[in-house]
From TrEMBL:
TM stretches of this protein: 6-25
Family from the record: Belongs to the YneA family.
Source species taxonomy: Bacteria, Bacillati, Bacillota, Bacilli, Bacillales
Organism of this sequence: Bacillus atrophaeus (strain 1942)
Protein name: Cell division suppressor protein YneA
Gene, per the UniProt record: yneA
Cellular compartments annotated: Cytoplasm
Presence of keyword Membrane: yes
Amino acid sequence: MIKEFIIFVGLFTGVLSAVILLLSFTNNDQEQNQYVKIEVQSGDTLWSLADQVSHTKKINKKDFIEWVTEENNLQTSDIQAGDVLMLPLKKEHPAAYQLATVK
């Protein structure tokens, strides 16, 4: 009786963990599709992008750089022309893929 109970608890925990893991990946993908993506141009830096965005969106530059670095899994703050970055700017139409250049 105890052996069956332990097996049941183990299976239940495994199934529950798998469901939670699946839901976390699904929500993350949907969340990322709501943000503007840009292609980095020659001469762009995270600081210059923060300068461009902070004027219109009232975003703290340091917070902007930290968000972009973390959400794009950047190891350093160095970015290269051609890199595609997700920015903390919500798309006007989240269902549409948007590749834009921030100017």
